[in-house]
Design goal:
heterodimer, A: 182 residues, alpha/beta, 5 helices, 7 strands, B: 155 residues, two-stranded parallel sheet, 4 helices, elongated, transport (chain B), ExbD (chain B), transmembrane helix (chain B), cell membrane (chain B), transmembrane (chain B)
Chain lengths: 182, 155
C-alpha cells in the first residue's frame, strides 16, 4: 500500500518579523516623547502704563514668598493647606469681618515672590489658589468638587454653569513683580 | 525485518508566530501616544507637579520655551538659561522670538499660547524676566507645563 504523502504547506519563515518590529519599536521609544500638554494656564496682565487702581486694603489678600520658600499670608507664616483655608475664608467673607473682603467679586489675591523663590514653590502656590477657587465655585454651584472639575466647556448647559460660577467668584490674582524680599 | 522509525508526535518548539503581532501592537501604541521630540533639549527639564491643570487645546497655536540649568555646564555655566527651538537665548531675544512665532501663525498670531517648560529647580528671577518680555510681546496666554499631582480629597 502506498503511504499517502502528507502535503507540506509552504511556510514563510516569520521568525525575523519580531526582530524587525522590535527595531521599529525601539526606534519609536527613543525618538519620541510622551507629550505633556497639560499645565497651569494663566493670563498675564496686558502691558499697560501705570494705571493706579484704587483698591480697598480690606479687599486685598497678601501673599509673600521669600527666597527660602517661606510663605507669609496676611502677615502670618503659613503652609499650603493653611493658605487655602485662609483664602477661602477671606473670599467668602461677604462683608462680615471688617478685615476681610466685601464680596467674592471684589476680593483680590496679591501674590508677591522673590527673585530667589523656587519655581516649584511658585507653582504650588498658584495651584493651591486655583484649587481654593475651584472648591469655592463648586460650593457656589452646590455640586461636589469632582463634578465641577468634570464640567465641560463644549456642553452649553455645563458651560452656563461654569460662566455663572466664574462670574460670581472671579479668579483675581495679581502677580506682582518679584523683588528682593528680605 | 525493517525497523520502524519511532515517530514523535510532540513538537518541541513553542510557536512564536504571534510574537510579531504582540510587538506590533506595542509599536502602534507608542506610535499613537507619543510625539517626536520637537527639539533637542539643552537644558534640564523636570517639570513641577500641580493638580489644577488645563489641557492645551490647539496644538498648532502653542509655542514652547524651555528654562533650566544647561546640561552642558562646562560650556554654559550653571545659571538657568532659556531655550527656544534649538538654541539658548538671552531674555532680550524673547520678544523677537515671539514675533517670529506669531508671524508663522499668520492671522491666528494673537491666539498664541506660550507653553513654558520650566525646570522645577529654576528660580523666579529669570522666569519673571521672561514673563515681562512676553508681556512686551503681547503673548499673554501662558501655560506653565506641569505634571499631574494627585490630591487626596479633603486634604
Amino acid at each position: 500500500m502506498i503511504q499517502k504523502k502528507k502535503k507540506e504547506t509552504p511556510e514563510i519563515n516569520g521568525g525575523a518579523m519580531a526582530d524587525i518590529a522590535f527595531l521599529l519599536l525601539i526606534f519609536f521609544l527613543v525618538a519620541t516623547t510622551i507629550a505633556s500638554d497639560k499645565g497651569v494656564t494663566v493670563m498675564l496682565p496686558p502691558k499697560a502704563e501705570d494705571v493706579d487702581v484704587k483698591v480697598k486694603t480690606r479687599n486685598v489678600f497678601n501673599i509673600l514668598v521669600n527666597s527660602k520658600d517661606m510663605m507669609l499670608a496676611q502677615e502670618e507664616q503659613v503652609d499650603l493647606p493653611q493658605l487655602r483655608t485662609m483664602v477661602k475664608e477671606f473670599v467668602l467673607n461677604n462683608g462680615k469681618n471688617k478685615d476681610m473682603s466685601e464680596s467674592p467679586a471684589k476680593a483680590i489675591i496679591s501674590l508677591k515672590s522673590d527673585r530667589g523663590t523656587s519655581y516649584e514653590m511658585y507653582i504650588s502656590v498658584i495651584d493651591e489658589l486655583k484649587y481654593a477657587y475651584a472648591e469655592m465655585r463648586a460650593m457656589y454651584l452646590k455640586i461636589p468638587l469632582e463634578d465641577y472639575q468634570a464640567l465641560d466647556k463644549e456642553n452649553p448647559d455645563q458651560k452656563e454653569k461654569l460662566t455663572r460660577a466664574r462670574k460670581a467668584i472671579p479668579y483675581k490674582v495679581s502677580d506682582a513683580e518679584p523683588s528682593e524680599i528680605k | 525485518m525493517a525497523t520502524f522509525k519511532k515517530k514523535t508526535k510532540t513538537k518541541q518548539d513553542i510557536p512564536t508566530s504571534a510574537l510579531p503581532d504582540i510587538i506590533f501592537m506595542l509599536l502602534f501604541f507608542f506610535m499613537i501616544s507619543t510625539t517626536f521630540r520637537e527639539s533637542e533639549l539643552l537644558v534640564k527639564n523636570s517639570l513641577p507637579q500641580a493638580s489644577e491643570l488645563t489641557k492645551l487645546e490647539k496644538k498648532s497655536l502653542v509655542s514652547y520655551i524651555y528654562i533650566g540649568e544647561p546640561t552642558d555646564t562646562k560650556k554654559f555655566g550653571t545659571e538657568p538659561r532659556i531655550q527656544v527651538n534649538d538654541v539658548l537665548i538671552e531674555p532680550d531675544q524673547i520678544v523677537q522670538h515671539v514675533i517670529q512665532e506669531k508671524d508663522k501663525l499668520g492671522e491666528d498670531g494673537d491666539k498664541i499660547t506660550m507653553s513654558l517648560k520650566i525646570d522645577r529647580d529654576a528660580k523666579m528671577g529669570v522666569i519673571s524676566d521672561v514673563r515681562q518680555k512676553l508681556r512686551d510681546a503681547n503673548a499673554l496666554k501662558v501655560n506653565y507645563a506641569s505634571n499631574k499631582k494627585l490630591r487626596i480629597s479633603g486634604m
